[in-house]
Amino acid sequence: MNDDMLRFRNSIWLLLLMTVGLIACQSDVYSTQTESNSGFYISLCDDVSVDSRATPSELGAPVASNFDLKITNKETGNLLYDGKFTDGLIPAAQGEYRIVASYGSNLELGLDTPYYEGTADGVVETDKATTVSVQCRVANALASAVFSNSEVFEKEFSSYALKVSVGSQYVTLKHADNKSAYYRAGAHPSFAFVGVMTDGTRVEIPIENEKLQDEATFAAAAHCKITLTMEATSGLKLKIEKIEVEKVTVNETIPVEWLPKPKVSGFEDITYVETDDAPQNAVIDYTASLPIQDMELTLNMQDEQYSAYNKTYTLSTLTSDDRANLGKLGIELPEVGVAKTGTINLQNLIGTMQTNAGATVDNTFSLRVKANNRWSDETASAKTYKVEVVKPEFSVKVDERNCWSREFTVDEVSITSGNAERLKENLVYQYYNGSEWVDCADRNNTKGRLQQFASRAEDISTKQYKVRALYRGAISSNEVTATLETPAQLPNSDMEEWQSVKLGRTSIFGGRADFYDFLPYKSGESDIWWATKNERSRDYSVSRIKITSAPCVSYTDDPSIVHGGNKSAFIYTSGHGGTYASTIDIIYPEGAFAGSLFIGKYKWSDNTEQLNPGHAFSKRPTSLVFWYKYIPKNTDSFKVYAELKNGNDIIASGTYIPAAISSETEWVKIELPLVYVDTPDVATDIFVQFLSTEKTSFVASDFDKKKKVSFPNMPNWEVHMGSRLYIDDISLVYDK
């Protein structure tokens, strides 16, 4: 290509977009409408005399739509319109307006970035539409470089260019690139020759000339062409052959290659949390002056589920299989020669991306578009768009309140990052059994947060388990510990441990005899659990006779009324004691009371009971089992009550009162369920009480007067006795 052609080509290149989308100035392009609405019709034109009929069709109206319009009321300063060019009516009230049309970005400095602008004033009359022609022209300035004897440059330099700098920014114009540097009108760029010699030496030579100090050189639409030559006669010498400043012109033979190259723009790097909602900005847009000729979409995904799709998909050679595979990914490519703009939508694809078993993966995409014989990236390497996929973050806890003797429940997972709904639907909760991780499941093998063991609580040797939540079989939460409660039984639950403590002798009026207290715990015991109301039954106001010295709770070692072992508890309803003047012949029903064996402490003083129920206990049984025999006086029922507390709060309780019954000749087993409150806390105390009757008030007929009974160490004793209850072999059941 000779110098004249090169100069011509460069001048056309710089003016191209000035005519792109511009139509010739015609006052009647948009005729005034007959409708009553007032407003503007806008036409775009340039101020260069051009035969529009000879202008290539691709430079016509279609690109006019790329212009931006801004219309401002000159009197008020209010903005009437701010948007894309339209050939329709822009409604406006009566007044004077300033219209500004622009195309491109008025960058401080850039390569091949022409900026077009035009300004016009228009007056709108009431109920009239006004047509305004806006003369658009190149509004920034540009420079290009010519190296006249390129063979010398090529011989002496491995690379060379003209460096154009504005402030801290710079671009380089290389030989035969056919690129121009655009800068804002009025800017004062500096120029320098830069090169790397064949021996590696770097050179930078400032370019200075009177024309480079002239304001007109850098005015709007001014094209500064710098021609450099290199003399090699006696050492290398760079010379400015000429500097030309021209106004941009339009020629009817503009090649399509000189149209702006297609533009591709997309998202900044995305960090996507697996399971999260697809990012709405995960798109790559492209736009061109002419319909798309070709496209290269390169997929490079580390995601193992999609790595098989990794390759460069070229639109011009795309097979039906390629389209089908891209369709599986939710990616649709355009047809060749149809559209000038479009979007590659990656949202659906990214919304299904996964880590590799929790390990972060990088997935990259690149897009190159070809139109008007130019690629958006003129090197084979296009901009890369990166999607980093990271694992979701979630954690579990195990509340001690949800750890029982045969089961535990993991708290619902807490989600730090990721889609909570998707995660929860696909989580598996696991515990470590000492050799492997096992999915939590109930005894019906339903998987979930509840782990129930089939073995009896007493047979479960391991009490601590590591627990986690697992997503997709690969991504784990933190590990926490679930500790099962260790079953425990009540002391002396078989009623075998008793001690007889001699308290004194009866008076001479009742025939002197030793009397005893019977304590439901072994001698020397410091941690006492069980108590009785024997102090009350022994109280008197007249004389210490057998009746006023008799306990209401003791034990029996009579084999006929022992369930297991050698002893059982004996509890009866007492018709004596409590400072009443009971005698062998007198019963005071108002002073009678139920015999009681219970967990706690008891004190009778000044005719007042001081009962401190319960004992420290940290286990949570599900039921209380006991064996009984009952001999009611008349029609009567005994009562058993059990409760568990956390501090002052009852967390579980159970009551057993049989229907009115006749004497039980055989031992009867009862399992009393302990009913817990919703979400019970851990236990701190337990209370169990056996009462010989549920009655709280009595009549004389509720008792056998001076009933003959033998206590251990106290044979042939006489008492006022109501209903009799025998209790043996108490146990706590742990079924949860």
Question: What is shown here, in short?
Answer:
The chain is mostly beta strands and 736 residues long.
Topology:
Blueprint (H helix, E strand, L loop, with lengths): L2 H17 L19 E7 L22 E6 L5 E6 L5 E2 L3 E9 L5 E3 L4 E9 L4 E7 L1 E2 L1 E8 L2 H7 E10 L2 E6 L6 E4 L5 E8 L4 E6 L14 E10 L5 E11 L15 E4 L3 E4 L9 E5 L6 E8 L9 E4 L5 H9 L12 E5 L1 H4 L10 E11 L2 E2 L8 E7 L2 E3 L11 E3 L4 E4 L2 H7 E6 L4 E3 L10 E3 L11 E8 L3 E2 L3 E4 L15 E7 L8 E6 L10 E3 L1 H4 L15 E4 L11 E7 L21 E10 L2 E6 L1 E2 L6 E9 L7 E8 L2 E8 L11 E6 L1 E2 L8 E7 L12 E8 L2 E20 L3
Parallel strand pairs: 1-8, 10-16, 19-26
Antiparallel strand pairs: 1-4, 2-3, 2-5, 5-7, 6-13, 7-9, 10-13, 11-12, 11-14, 14-15, 16-17, 18-20, 20-23, 21-22, 21-24, 24-25, 24-26, 27-29, 28-32, 30-31, 30-33, 33-34, 33-35, 36-37, 38-41, 39-40, 40-51, 41-42, 41-49, 43-49, 44-47, 44-51, 45-46, 45-49, 46-48, 50-51
